[in-house]
Amino acid sequence: MMENEAWLDQQEEAKTVRKIVLFVAIPIIVLMIAAIISGYLYIQSALKPVNPNSQQQIKVSIPIGSSVYDIASILEEKGIIKNATVFRYYVKFKNHADFQAGDYTLTPAMTLAEIVETLKTGKVIKPAKLKIIIPEGKQLTQIATIIAQKTGYSREEIMAKMNDRRYIEELMKKYPTVLSAEILNKNIRYPLEGYLFPATYSFSEKKPSIEQIIEAMLAKTEEVLVKYEGEMTERGLTVHTLLTMASLIEEEATEKVDREKIASVFYNRLQAGMPLQTDPTVLYALGKHKERVYYKDLKVNSPYNTYLHRGLPPGPIANAGEMSINAALHPADTDYFYFLATPTGEVIFTKTLDEHNREKAKYIGKQ
What we know:
Elements: H1 2-46, E1 58-62, H2 68-77, H3 84-94, E2 102-106, H4 112-120, E3 130-133, H5 140-151, H6 155-162, H7 165-174, E4 200-203, H8 210-225, H9 229-235, H10 239-252, H11 259-272, H12 279-286, H13 322-329, E5 338-341, E6 347-350, H14 353-364
Antiparallel strand pairs: 1-2, 3-4, 5-6
Helix pairs in contact: 2-3, 5-6, 10-11, 10-13, 11-13
EC number: 4.2.2.29
InterPro entries: MLTG-like (IPR003770)
Membrane topology: Single-pass membrane protein
């Protein structure tokens, strides 16, 4: 009898516990569902026009060098979009780029798709009074020289701004998808090395500020890299790693070379635990340009020297064009571990050190 009473007590206790659990859990579940639904409805609402029936026309100016972050903030402030964050994610998800600086007449009745298309086909605010051409494969010091020649700023003040820690930290906040703490590594020579995209830059002023010029180049880098976010994630590459690898490919490439094969050699060597042993990193470590690297040069004590240190150098050694960025993301599938550029610009790929040395002896003898 007592056993039955105990069993009944246990059942009653279990029933009470279940009631308490349900009493606590149901409100939490309801709140979670409500949060998910409200979040979904909020995003759906933010994707729609601010006011589909509006006839109001609003003047909006997008300055040269504006990032997607800047553009979204301007549009939200002007009442053209509902939410800047949603707009930025929309642009990334749709893989949009090539926004143009200019004066626009927009309306709150426009959809996000209409706004994006308008911003991609706009005209520059004023005729360009200054053009700066930055070629591929240029190092930061060379870029500073080009800017100095075009603007009248001294090379020293340009380099000082590019290496100003406080300014770099401001840029990191402004371009968070491009600049990370990796650029402040103590082994890195110049934080912005490799981050100023090679392109032609037009300015409506004869002498824009150094900041305007730098940020126009960073905005271009952001515009290019946003297209590759998914592929970077798939390959497990950060922007810094991607630009570092792309810079090595850029510096080793010739007009006749298959960049994807060069990329395959670098990746094969990394996977095998071999040093990359690429001469451009030695020249970067030396801080000089030479036609030929000698054995004594290979001993230069620098974290950039890939003959002494395995893995990638601390950061990019030059700016890379989109072809090299593509190659870094899509290396060829080969079993090559060596390559050699001939005097005619041809590149010979080999699998073994013996093969490489034979080719090297053959072509060095012809030099």
